[in-house]
Amino acid sequence: MDKLALVLVIIGAINWGLIGFFQFDLVAAIFGGQTAALSRIIYGLVGLAGLYSIKFLVGERRVDS
Predict the structure, then answer these.
(1) Which helix (H) or strand (E) holds 36?
(2) pLDDT tens across 1-56, in order?
(3) How many angstroms separate the CA atoms of 46 and 7, rounded?
(4) What integer pLDDT is reported at residue 59 of this predicted model?
(5) Over 80: is that where the pLDDT of 61 sits?
(6) If DSSP codes are grouped into helix, strand and coil, which group holds residue 60?
(7) CB atoms near residue 64 (< 10 Å)
(8) Per-residue pLDDT band at 65 (split at 50, 70, 90)
(9) What is the DSSP letter of 35?
(10) Contact, 49 vs 38, CB < 8 A?
(11) Cα–Cα distance between 16 and 23 in angstroms, integer?
């Protein structure tokens, strides 16, 4: 689950970078526009992955010795 969340967060970050630098929404281009059902599902999954990934920021760190 952690790796899947990380992959989705990376996809989201790349997409936001493309939007910011080039005004190009890759997810919308691939899946038929920002309002297309599949695009909205991808956006939702990326958002959920971002929320899930908060645990990496606030979670306990193990010290292996």
Answers:
(1) none
(2) 899 999 999 999 999 999 999 999 999 999 999 999 999 999 999 999 999 999 98
(3) 9
(4) 80
(5) no
(6) coil
(7) 3
(8) low
(9) T
(10) no
(11) 9
Gap between the Cα atoms of 21 and 35, Å rounded? 22
Supply 20's token pair.
């910011």
Q: What is the pTM of this model?
A: 0.81
Whole-angstrom distance, CA of residue 14 vs CA of residue 44 = 16
- Tokens (6 digits) for 14: 């790349």
Q: Are 48 and 11 in contact (CB under 8 A)?
A: no
Place of tokens 């929404």: 25
Q: Which two tokens stand for residue 16?
A: 């936001």
The identity of residue 4, as a single letter, is L
Q: How far apart are CA 45 and CA 3, in angstroms?
A: 14
Amino acid at 47: G
